[in-house]
């Protein structure tokens, strides 16, 4: 292992391209928050702190998740990453849009994604988790090389710029929300900063504030939790949640798939069991409140997430040259696992990474992220 500490600002550096070799260790660069440093939140919507806040750069080994099983095969693959243990998993899951007459461009058509991809993925999630309800809240298209501020900053007309047609504004403000599909502002870029999108506090704020239809779908959850908070004001919610007959298990997931084989900026995921409580750093992430009108349309909220400090033993996983049929299911929050005392509450830190030997002139990665609320 090599450790490099750099003083911000710094830029991403690439050398020559090398194809992954499954017989040899593969290493990637991960950017942590330095010990003793408290990062400043980003002023931009959906954005993590500036990359200059991540000055502890580590070159770490990546563990392969190949071969990638189907959902039906997953339970028998004891050595494969699992949601209940690692906080993420990988499954082989082709969809309707992978077959003719559909093409690569079909994946950038919100109408086709709504008609085929969301139902196909909903069925997969139900089979994988056993949940009864899947609520899709957003689809996020990443198709640009990394930049500090990207299309997320002005999503749905929020922010300092306004260059969005009414049709795309409707898609961005809708439910589910389509992010990164507006050709005038371009796709979203990778996030080369280890992070977990929601802390347990952030997850609860999110289902209450993100969109009225998400709040409506989570009505029973919110009502039961508010009741528990009033009945047990001095007890952590996680300690009383699992004992209450009025509550339901709920979880949030990101379903991440590439739209073409990944040659640069692959996604890596950190085994939650290798994190210690002191490794987590809470951070505020500015998020617009969608689906509102009038003055409320400009409202935003802070959805708390986690960043990380490095400690020995962190284990990162990836899929080398990940294919479009190979899906990462990323835990963001799970009320059941929160009840077991896990600080990450079933969520796992993840980051796009610069592979050692990755080429500078490889075309941008394209990926689609579908975020869901699951209820049992």
From TrEMBL:
Molecular function GO terms recorded: oxidoreductase activity
PANTHER family xrefs: BLL6449 PROTEIN, OXIDOREDUCTASE AN1597
Family listed: Belongs to the asaB hydroxylase/desaturase family.
Name recorded for this polypeptide: GA4 desaturase
């Amino acid at each position: 292992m090599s450790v490099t500490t750099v003083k911000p600002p710094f830029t991403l550096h690439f050398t020559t391209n090398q194809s992954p070799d499954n017989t040899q260790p593969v290493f990637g660069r991960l950017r942590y928050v330095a010990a003793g440093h408290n990062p400043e939140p980003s002023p931009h919507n959906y954005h993590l702190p500036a990359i200059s806040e991540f000055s502890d750069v580590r070159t770490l080994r990546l563990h392969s998740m190949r071969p990638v099983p189907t959902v039906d095969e997953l339970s028998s693959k004891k050595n494969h990453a699992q949601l209940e243990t690692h906080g993420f998993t990988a499954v082989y899951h082709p969809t309707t849009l992978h077959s003719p007459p559909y093409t690569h461009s079909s994946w950038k058509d919100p109408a086709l994604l709504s008609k085929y991809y969301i139902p196909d993925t909903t069925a997969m999630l139900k089979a994988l988790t056993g949940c009864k309800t899947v609520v899709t809240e957003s689809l996020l298209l990443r198709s640009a090389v990394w930049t500090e501020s990207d299309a997320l900053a002005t999503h749905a007309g929020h922010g300092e710029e306004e260059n969005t047609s009414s049709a795309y504004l409707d898609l961005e403000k809708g439910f589910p929300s389509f992010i990164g599909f507006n050709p005038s502002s371009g796709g979203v870029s990778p996030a080369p900063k280890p992070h977990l999108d929601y802390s347990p506090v952030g997850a609860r704020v999110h289902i209450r504030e993100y969109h009225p239809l998400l709040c409506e779908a989570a009505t029973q959850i919110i009502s039961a939790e508010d009741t528990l908070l009033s009945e047990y004001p001095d007890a952590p919610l996680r300690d009383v949640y699992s004992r209450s007959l009025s509550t339901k298990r709920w979880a949030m997931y990101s379903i991440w798939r590439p739209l073409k084989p990944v040659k640069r900026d692959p996604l890596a995921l950190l085994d939650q069991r290798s994190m210690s409580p002191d490794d987590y750093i809470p951070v505020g992430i500015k998020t617009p409140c969608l689906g509102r009108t009038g003055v409320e349309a400009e409202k935003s909220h802070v959805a708390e997430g986690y960043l990380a400090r490095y400690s020995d033993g962190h284990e990162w996983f990836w899929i080398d040259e990940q294919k479009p049929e190979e899906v990462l299911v990323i835990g963001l929050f799970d009320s059941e696992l929160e009840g077991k005392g896990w600080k990450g509450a079933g969520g796992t830190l993840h980051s796009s990474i610069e592979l050692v030997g990755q080429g500078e002139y490889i075309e941008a990665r394209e990926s689609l992220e579908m975020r869901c609320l699951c209820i049992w």
